[in-house]
Amino acid sequence: MNYRKLGNTGISVSEVSFGTWAIGGSWGRTNDQESLKALDYAIGQGVNFFDTADVYGDGHSEELLAKATKGKEDQVYIATKFCRAGDIHSKETYSYETVRSYCEASLKRLGREAIDLYQIHCPPIEILQNGQVFEVLDKLQQEGKIRHYGVSVETVEEGLLCLQNPNVKALQVIFNMFRQKPIEKLFPEAKKNGVGILVRLPLASGLLTGKFTKGHTFEAEDHHNFNENGAAFNVGETFAGLGFAKGVELSEQLAWIAEGRHSMTTAALRWILDQDEISCVIPGFKNERQITENLRAIEEKSFSPEELQRIVQFYEEKVKGAIRGPY
């Protein structure tokens, strides 16, 4: 395993880490025994960082992480998120009393005394502009309930706004071959400010694995089905905002990235890891097989200058104009 600095927090995280949305809920059926087996395997392979949220299965993924990391709390870092259990547009959701209650509930489920990285979970930009939530997080940090804090954002504009606060130590962003916008301004600014970058949806909800065909169907409770057009939350959180049919079409055109490499999955993750501003990628998983596949990216062959230019050109000409929603 390779490790990278999480900004200037003093924490070093496994460059391939994992998100736990899929094992918590909203990705179809889950199996807790399979999830725990996969978590144990990942930790055994040197993965020391996991991302979760209080709304993933109504706290279920936090409870699974508590079981998987019991006795290893000093070796495995956990980032969790808050605000989406309430009305994200209400100032009350970001008050000291409310955020403290979210934090204490997460701590109880995680079985920990402090949260390593506490993140605001994709709040509206007006909340970030108001800034009072950062004062609340400063207070929780002073009380020892959280060690560091950051923000999970939907857009580059939101990310740049967060960088104006010197105590924001990490940004979680959507970034993949279909979502290249952060490269231009956000990543250089984050690096200059000593802020870590966590990459979520690195495989564009599975599109960049190459496993989907246009005739594929999803379970009713899977967000691939119910949020394709942004009915439940930001449209960019599902299929990179492209829609399923368009996403499959574009992924088929990108199939060449697997040539001379293990798979599209490992190639897509390698491309992200070769951006030196990245602290880690956090793909999702449901089982040990998916953990194994994602970890292969660590040893994957990097892209040549010619291949990199081809990927940029593909994004500019075929992808950029098809993305829906703000990003």
From TrEMBL:
The enzyme's E.C. designation: 1.1.1.-
Organism superkingdom: Bacteria
Domain NADP-dependent oxidoreductase: from-to ranges: 16-315
InterPro entries: AKR, AKR2_Oxidoreductase, NAD(P)_OxRdtase_dom_sf, NADP_OxRdtase_dom
Keyword set, alphabetical order: Oxidoreductase
Class in the EC hierarchy, top level: oxidoreductase
Gene Ontology molecular function: any one: oxidoreductase activity
Full protein name: Aldo/keto reductase
